[in-house]
What does this fold into?
Amino acid sequence: MNKEFSSQWNRSSQRRKQRKYRHNAPLHVRQRFVAAPLAEALRKKYGKRAAQVHKGDTVTILRGQFRGHKGKIERVDLKRSRIFIEGAQVIKRDGTKVFYPMHTSKVCIEELVLDDKKRKALFEVKK
It folds into this structure.
């Protein structure tokens, strides 16, 4: 196992090493990086401040040209740490619509998809 990604690493306060860690992280570690804050109602309900985003979650966009838009997550791109939200699309010059890549820190989770047993158990523990 690569020592850089063991659970003991994350201790450097140097910004360059933090950037290196995030840039070279494998996808199963990057999954933890795509987390977004929960809405106030969900915070009270589950006792958590943030959660990893999953396809199907409903989010509200807080920043940028789509501010205030509410939609479901269509796709999560772990390599680029971006999510794609239905309705947040731009029109290219040739007329085709493409999803606008959004960082998870710029959205707020309004509704969670709890179909997955492991994810459901995560929220039940904190209650």
Q: What stands out?
A: The two ends are 35 Å apart (CA to CA). The first strand starts at residue 35 and ends at 37. The chain has four helices and eight strands.
